[in-house]
Design goal:
homodimer; alpha+beta; 3 domains; globular; flavin adenine dinucleotide binding (chains A, B); 3-methylmercaptopropionyl-CoA dehydrogenase (chains A, B); Acyl-CoA_dh-like_C_dom (chains A, B); EC 1.3.99.41 (chains A, B); oxidoreductase (chains A, B)
């Protein structure tokens, strides 16, 4: 049976020592998040994830969800009780608006906790996760009445939320969508259409489900400029705001998916369901996009989460499984064979995952912190810079953490040999669950295009230039620190490659946009490697500082951390050159072949 | 529903134009394999794979195998009939020994056909595939009587075969195995023990199953030097050699696997089952190893096969799915959107897979041809060189084609967006099926160790030196061919990196063997990239020759082939530098961390 232990110590180290969380105590909400409280929240949240949610992961995968003959959907055994305990403990309210029952704490904390819950059980985490997305959309675009009606229940978790975008013929290109909304003259609309891939679309864990639905108002312009956002409750609300009669929305079937079996992914049929406009007419896409940064960061965390839990289990197996002898001579001569962690090729796999996990976790928290600053800082310039950093890093995190997180889950599975391929060890579930994160909330190719097509050129490249300057300043400030040289030098080389690639786009993508498309995915990964390399340099600095302070309690752990970071620089950063070479080769070869000759 | 078309034209082009198959007509068996016959066999074999075997792939995955209460196992619907048709048509006998009912044709042809059958239905292909492995073992190590008893039935396919190595506590390290064999004094043994992960271990498609089982004769030495190989029929044979009463062997349960659901992967219980020694006492591992090259080549082909079928379906989807507009302006303005194949990032994925598939197919056939030459050439030196090449390339093919084949299946799945994640499109099956090939028949980490630890140093590096010389000679012979420059230059660069990496091992792995282990997987992939690059250079030469000959019928296809090859050189070869950098970083960092600190 797979196991999981929340990496609370690493999160705390990143928050306290690397990101200097305490220095933001003048921001609203941060003052309440004292170091003690942060530690208590993460410790208790981690324990909840380990003890209540994780035990339902494998069984939830094997049992899956069931659609009953009346169209209702039953999640796997134990999910409902665990969900109620989750809400009871207030884990869903951490960073929610206090005006509607939230705790108003920094979103960074909710992000950290989200990693634990996703590691423990990704399919489960999606129920509150989708709700959080719907809360964000209503908070930003709902009327006061809508907020009063829906937010308290959703924040408390007694109602969950969904996002309804995709239709059978359109996903990425929402301009093609056909679901229609007919105004009823009383401010309400009747919504009709079919939506697919709707996570948490129908289930019996709560008394109501709040569907946010993209549809086209009758007579609206074609394309993306004619799409509006609607709120459609599963049960209509009575005069007191309580769920009453059924609305015209139902689950037509459950998708047969590769993974996340514990989450009810539904085909949703809307048949003149009553809904209300959220935000302006025909501005539905904009309403969706404003909440996407947050949702994409959540999916990025899913990639990290599966990489982390897969790593932990692979380490446990590698220490336990006896097979063969170390090349340099027996390490456990008293046993029939050595544990396979003595073999360098096993260590290579484990260190590669670990080096990614810590760098990725740092980048997630760094970005989430910028998100908090962007929302809470009193200083406009500070807000703008944080907004820039968050916007720039969001597609990078979503694309790179899910691509690499999946690859890491596959590598961790490999450590188990044949046992990784069979269900009882749970490794194949991590692989199958991780796979979806590369696809939904904008497939990773779309993230790459968002990065090179939108985020890079925005405001004359202001965001990317600021990021380069920040790295440069860090390098300059630490150039004489000999202990940091193994980090600063490779980072500088990687950053050079990233700058060259950026320059190449500036010179070649204006006249031929396909040059941007052809290099977009490589650029995204190049960016991710360098950004995580920058995080590792910051981690190394904080680690050395802690070692110098003589914090002897975990000296060995700190030294190991430096080794994981060194591994990152030695073994992962070299990939930046290959990315640059591919980017620089441009689009000519790939565009030269007629579609029929593929 | 997924579809499949056997790439017969590409196989024929590789055999005839790139590998000059006709020039080997003086070898035994090759004279019969005239170009016309080869074309007829591949065409008909391809059709059989497409029409009879492929339609059972998705249904076989969804239905899976069933273990009945009496311990018998029923494969998915249709498998038995298809298997009988397969045997009827003689597809299993192509390269088998004519003395026992085989056709004696080159093994290269059987390898080419194996790709088609595996693409069509990997789980199905394993039933005859495992039989072929058992046939090879009995052919090499069985007594004349054993051969007479088993081979005719196994070659005809009326009996199938299995390989029983793995036990719950040992897979890679067979020295730990515990299954025991007690001599009965009449030449027979009673075998007892539990074997796991036994492909095609039990099923009702044939009248008997021939289990080859590794076990330890009572009193044998410990470790790998005390292991013997036994043949254990499911039903004992009566005086006429026909299956009679049940032997003490049964399927305890079916493994719950991530994929290849159509193949019955069994836990096999041996309870005083009667068996007979194959080969010498205590030399069972050697008997296994001599057949491993062939089996590993078969698994390499599985990696290619899933990459190919996933590619074909991704191409079809990319041409069909309308979503968004080309960055350079609408390409199908009459439609609501452009087909997604207009997008460079989609083409990047498709070309990467295609460029791999053609290079990999060439390398498979090149290696299989060396296998034929090694077995059939009258000239000792030629035989030795071919044996060297086959031995050298086998771990490279097994490791690289399955790692990259899996990654390609994942990338092809990505083209489908959300539809790739749900069962009805069949893409997730290719991913799940491809995954096992990285694990079984020696996990890929073991292949990498076989390459750097055995194949590289064998005979003072004779094999690798010969391979370098061959590439160098090719470069020299074509250095003035301007049309080939885009292939020769990057190949030279990649080969340089490979030579530097080889040199690095020679200088650093003797004194510290962990340096070999730490770089082994990167070296294997570096080797594969260069070897496939060499194949692409040969393909390009043959393509230019065909274009120069004015073979106008498929000029556009030939030009596209050059573009796929150019893509390989521009986008895939740059990875060699990253591999070299990682290899050269050595083992120090990864060995510096205590196991408890992971």
């Amino acid at each position: 049976m797979p196991s999981y232990r929340a990496p609370v110590e690493d999160t705390l180290f990143l928050l306290n020592d690397v990101l200097d969380y305490a220095s933001y105590s003048d921001l609203p909400g941060f003052a309440d998040a004292s170091p003690d409280l942060v530690e208590a929240i993460l410790t208790e949240g981690g324990k909840f994830a380990e003890e209540v949610i994780q035990p339902l992961n494998l069984s939830g995968d094997q049992e899956g969800c069931k659609r009953n003959s009346d169209g209702s959907v039953t999640p796997p055994k134990g999910f409902k009780l665990a969900y109620e305990a989750f809400c009871e403990a207030g884990w869903g309210t951490l960073s929610a608006d206090p005006d509607f029952g939230g705790q108003g704490l920094p979103h960074t904390l909710a992000t950290a906790l989200n990693e634990y819950v996703s590691s423990a059980n990704m399919a489960f985490a999606m129920y509150p996760g989708l709700t959080a997305g719907a809360i964000a959309a209503l908070t930003l675009h709902g009327t006061d009445e809508q907020k009063q009606t829906y937010l308290p229940k959703m924040i408390a978790g007694t109602w969950t939320g969904t996002m309804n975008l995709t239709e059978p013929h359109c996903g990425t290109d929402l301009g093609l969508l056909r679901s229609k909304a007919v105004p009823q003259g009383d401010g309400s609309f009747k919504i009709s259409g079919t939506k697919i891939f709707i996570s948490a679309g129908e289930h019996d864990m709560v008394e109501n489900i709040v569907h946010l639905v993209l549809a086209r108002i009758e007579g609206a312009p074609e394309g993306t400029k004619g799409i509006s956002l609607f709120v459609v409750p599963k049960r209509k609300l009575d005069a007191d705001g309580n769920p009453g009669e059924e609305n015209g929305v139902s689950c037509g079937s459950l998708e047969h998916k590769m993974g996340i079996h514990g989450n009810a992914t539904c085909v949703m049929n809307y048949d003149e369901a009553v809904g209300w406009l959220v935000g302006d007419e025909h501005k539905g896409l904009r309403a969706m996009f404003t909440m996407m940064n947050e949702a994409r960061l959540g999916v990025a965390v899913q990639g990290l989460s599966q990489s982390e839990v897969a790593y932990q289990n692979a380490v446990a197996y590698a220490k336990d499984r006896l097979q063969g002898r170390a090349l340099s001579g027996a390490k456990a001569p008293e046993k029939a064979a050595d544990p396979i962690i003595v073999h360098p090729d096993i260590r290579r796999i484990l260190m590669q995952i670990r080096a990614f996990n810590e760098g990725a976790r740092a980048l997630v928290l760094w970005t989430a912190l910028h998100g908090d600053i962007a929302h809470r800082s009193p200083d406009e310039k500070t807000r703008q810079n944080s907004e820039d950093m968050m916007g720039l890093m969001t597609p990078v995190l979503k694309g790179v953490l899910t691509d690499t997180g999946f690859a890491n889950a596959v590598n961790a599975q490999q450590v188990f040999g044949g046992h990784g391929y069979i269900a009882e060890w749970g490794m194949d579930q991590f692989v199958r669950d991780a796979r979806i994160a590369m696809i939904y909330e904008g497939a990773n190719g779309i993230q790459a295009l968002d990065l090179v097509g939108r985020k890079l050129p925005a405001n004359g490249g202001r965001a990317v230039m600021a990021f380069f300057e920040e790295m440069k300043a860090f390098g300059k400030a630490n150039k004489d620190d000999e202990a940091l040289a193994p980090f600063i030098q490779p980072l500088k080389q990687g950053a050079d490659h990233l700058q060259q690639a950026t320059m190449w786009f500036m010179q070649n993508a204006m006249k031929q946009p396909d040059n941007a498309g052809a290099g977009s995915t490589d650029y995204m990964h190049l960016f991710g490697l360098v950004a995580m390399g920058y995080m590792w340099a910051k981690i190394a600095k904080a680690t050395h500082a802690k070692l110098a302070n003589g914090d002897a309690a975990n000296t060995e752990e700190l030294k190991a951390k430096l080794a994981f970071g060194t591994f990152y620089m030695e073994r992962m950063m070299p990939e930046t050159a290959a990315h640059l070479a591919r980017i620089s080769s441009g689009c000519d070869t790939m565009m030269s072949v007629d579609a029929d000759l593929f």
